[in-house]
Amino acid sequence: MKTTLRTGIIFILALVSIFVFNASSASAYADTLPALQGTAGGPKATVKEGTVNVRSGPGTAYAIVGRTKAGQSHEITGKNKDGSWWEIDFGGKKSWIYGPLMTVEGNTTAVPVVAAPPLPKVQPKPAAGAAAGYFGYGIQIDPAADRGAAINDTRQLGFTWVKFQLPWKDYEGTQGVKNFPDDIVNDLNGNGLNILVSIVKAPNWARNPAYGFPEEGPPADPATYASYVGEFAKRYCGRVQAVEVWNEQNLHYEWGNEPLDAGRYVQLLAAAYRSIKANCPQMVVVSGALTPAGNVNIGGEQKAIDDQQYLKAMYRAGLARYSDAIGVHPSGYNVAPDVGWQQACGFITGQASSFRGACDTPHPSWSFRSTMEGYRNIMVANGDRKKRLWPTEFGWATNWIGDPRYAYAQDNTPEEQAAWTVRAFQMMRDWGWVGPAFLWNLNYSSGEQGQWQANGRPVFGALAGMAK
């Protein structure tokens, strides 16, 4: 029995950029290495090793204009605002290269800051109707933060999906008076991004007052939620590709401290599914992802239900009929993505990890791989093999020091975070039964040590340079 709640929260990502040569682009740029070397006397950037892409602007969202390789030098003519990219003379044309991949010779004090060219407009892809059946790269954002920066960073990552959470209580505070996030959807969709919206948190007027309101919770009548999400689907049909119906409903404080009940959740899902499909048949309905956990009872109260047990109960209640994709939150804790839960204790022991959850309470939820494979096995056993798992949150935390429940983050280095996140994306892509996967997160901040907003960490550059 577990004595702590593990909600799978992770705190990641950066606002810097990186790129490396992508093998898939080799043939397209095989003849674009200029012989021109840096001008004598001025600062020069020399490639440290391997082959590096040169781009039309300071970020991986800009087009590749050529390649340069180890030992080649180029005159530095400018830099971007934070100094992470150099503008160089590349065969007589001003182009950009990522600074950490270069060795710089000469004095760069007087190098001017050069404004980045406008990012090219792109269209959302692929079509919404195909969204449930293909893999994609996504990240969760806080849309109330600097949305322009989040859009640019997402595109520099090379990701085509974003997720945000919409608190229903903030958009229908008075019953029947429905408001909608037009500004958010317009900004994201208008910049070529596919959108997953997780609609959660019932307003107090829709909830059962018998349970009070100390925690966020579901509506007493599923029809009230269905009414809102149905109008949401009608308003944004073709602009929002997917809706996730609720979040971590096997956890007490996501279910309003009401009795945890998979059957009651599926009633909510079924009402939402019918309403969404009636208003926008191509919009993908994702079942609410469960928190990875065992059965947790504290003081005689059930605080969490084992996620795989809860998923089985959802199927018994009719999950297959009321979903296009199955949500999942495969957290990594302090275990590498390839490591199954039976080997997790040995892994963290070998790592000399301080957080011993995988040894103290062995369980599949400690393992990214075991969570994903366990859910897939349950889907297949219930005749639902044609659907895909959508990881609507996943990742590895580092350096969190504000809450003992997340002490596992102290064991993970930024370099491990980067390597494990890339490997997880590669595993999901190669499995063939995973849909768009959303890393938590790009731009949240905690107010305590700022660890949710991991500025400057290696993970951003590793993901931007990852082959997709």
Characterise this structure.
This protein has 468 residues and is of the alpha/beta class. The chain folds into 2 domains: 32-105, SH3 type barrels; 128-465, TIM Barrel (Alpha-Beta Barrel). Helices cover 26% and strands 18% of the residues. It has 11 helices and 17 strands. The chain has helices spanning 147-157, 168-171, 182-190, 222-236, 262-279, 307-316, 341-350, 357-360, 368-381, 414-431, 458-465, and strands spanning 44-47, 51-55, 64-69, 73-79, 85-90, 93-98, 102-105, 136-140, 161-167, 194-200, 242-245, 284-287, 296-298, 301-304, 325-328, 388-391, 436-439. The strands form 4 sheets. The chain has an 8-stranded parallel β-sheet with strand order 16-15-12-11-10-9-8-17. The chain has a 5-stranded antiparallel β-sheet with strand order 6-5-4-1-7, with no helix packed on it. Strand 4 (73-79) and strand 5 form a beta hairpin. Helix 4 runs parallel beside helix 5, helix 6 (307-316) packs parallel to helix 9 and helix 10 (414-431) runs parallel beside helix 11 (458-465). The longest helix is centred in the middle third of the chain and has 18 residues, at 262-279. The chain is globular and about 75 Å long. Mean pLDDT is 86; it is low at 1-40, 122-129 and 447-455.
